[in-house]
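Predicting holo structure, zinc ion bound.
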Amino acid sequence: MNNINKNIITIEDIENAPNGSLDFSFDGIIEDIPSNEPVKANLNIKSLGEFIKITGTFNAKLVLVCDLCLKEYQYDMHEEIDEMFAKNSLKEEYGAETELKSTQFVNDLNGDDKIDIYDLLYQSVILNIPNKKVCGINCSKGKFQTDEEFVEEDPRMQIFKNIKIGNNK
Ligand SMILES: [Zn+2]
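Done. Tokens:
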């Protein structure tokens, strides 16, 4: 329990910090992400009046399964975090889906007095897992597919295709 609780930052903690700005490092295992190694993050948590802004970077070493050859491979994730939290519900003012700028999604704390950094990092890792997982440029299956595409686009093969069509008439 203590381990989880120390990753929860209260709004009071942030506002009591000098200049309303708190540096926070995380180095630990996050359960339910495909990794056996600790996730490391260096974050800055800043109070901006009605909003809390969290910026920083994190690293994770994930074990993903290649979509092409189905083998496991290590994927080094280095990503930035840039998240905005609204202290009070914005729903009445702006509607359920709040987007201040087109790229800036605001997480609504709904009057909650704390932010769970562990959960924020879990979400950030999951959201940054690539849609197309390929173990590398030397993936044996990937190479095979590229060769096949090349053969299909070979003009000499196009001639054979045309002949076939002609014979079927
Ligand atoms: Zn592969």
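Residues 85 and 144 are 47 Å apart (CA to CA).
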